[in-house]
Specification:
single chain; 3-stranded mixed β-sheet; 327 residues; mainly alpha
Length: 327
């Protein structure tokens, strides 16, 4: 909950900054009448809308779990990111349309020298805010905040490109450079919009995050307890800032309820130390079987029926299986 509120505050700042930069870019357009500057301003409209949508989604995601949403409201972030990506793609096509028209009929440009400094200032502000928002989104595992940070970074990159383009127009006098840069911007914006939609749909559909899954498995292998004889049926699902982990953990069959619970507590504590407190667990304990003995690393087990043969390292392939493992 703490991280959700922090995400909300950062998103409010990002949205407020987007509105300020949106105004500044339109001022730069009216100063220069540059199509590439107009395309940058149009993208800023999308950033403002995306920021407002992201702000609302984080507000929803910060609500506590209730009987209607037992896993919380975190998936609102995925819906927000999908809509933001759609808006970005739409802006990209608008920019392409206007750029192609102007390519054959170049507009009259003026006051470029003053406009270039105003654009450069917006690019620097965007980059600083974008890096901060993206870092916090990664730290707090918030897709909506990461998407907002990515939008600001893309905006800063394109603004830098436009600034260079305007400088080339000033230096060479070729107005066609303005339209060429705007076309390149449109294609770049469409591509990044697609990536955001792809990631958000993966979250909505509960697509396995293989990189995150591998990170969880690596951590478990690194500090594995001998009482965790085996693990299978591992599932890692993200609900906004909340990560939900399901698995079956095999412990010695002769453990009583309290001992099995202690083994699970140690298991969950290890994961939270690595990934933070925003992790929810559903760990089902299984008692070991006769065929578990050859892979069991408990050194002095009076119940052992066969000698230890080989430690089974957990991998993506074997922990995703819904069957207990044996040699």
């Amino acid at each position: 909950m703490q991280k959700s509120k922090q995400n909300l505050k950062i998103q409010f700042f990002v949205t407020s900054l987007s509105i300020v930069l949106f105004v500044l870019k339109f001022v730069a357009y009216f100063m220069t009448h540059s199509l590439s500057v107009l395309s940058d301003a149009l993208e800023s409209i999308v950033n403002v809308l995306a920021g407002l949508i992201g702000l609302y989604s984080l507000y929803v995601a910060s609500k506590p779990k209730d009987k209607d949403h037992p896993y919380g409201h975190g998936k609102a972030e995925f819906v927000s990111a999908a809509f933001e990506g759609s808006l970005i793609i739409t802006a990209g096509f608008i920019i392409l349309y206007e750029s192609i028209n102007t390519f054959f009929d170049p507009a009259t440009l003026h006051n470029l020298d003053n406009g270039i400094w105003l654009l450069l200032a917006t690019a620097i502000l965007n980059m600083v805010a974008g890096l901060f928002a993206k870092a916090q989104g990664k730290k707090n595992k918030s897709l909506a905040l990461s998407a907002s940070g990515q939008h600001l970074l893309i905006d800063s990159y394109t603004t830098y490109a436009i600034t260079i383009g305007i400088g080339l127009v000033l230096y060479t006098g070729y107005k066609i450079i303005d339209a060429v840069i705007a076309i390149a911007m449109g294609l770049w914006i469409i591509y990044n919009g697609y990536k955001i939609i792809r990631e958000s749909l993966a979250g909505i559909m509960d697509e396995a995050d293989m990189a995150l899954l591998d990170e969880v498995i690596l951590e478990l292998n690194h500090t594995r307890n001998s009482n965790w004889i085996d693990m299978h049926n591992l599932r890692v699902i993200k609900y906004g800032a909340l990560m939900h982990i399901d698995c079956h953990l095999t412990v010695p069959w002769y453990f009583n309820v309290n001992e099995a619970h202690a083994a699970v507590d140690e298991f969950t504590k290890l994961i939270k130390n690595k990934f933070g407190e925003s992790v929810e667990f559903f760990v089902h304990t299984d008692g070991c079987m006769v065929y578990s003995c050859p892979i069991c690393t408990i050194e002095h087990c009076e119940k052992r029926t066969s000698v230890f043969q080989q430690k089974l390292n957990w991998t993506r392939e074997n922990v995703l299986s819904d069957l207990k493992h044996q040699l």
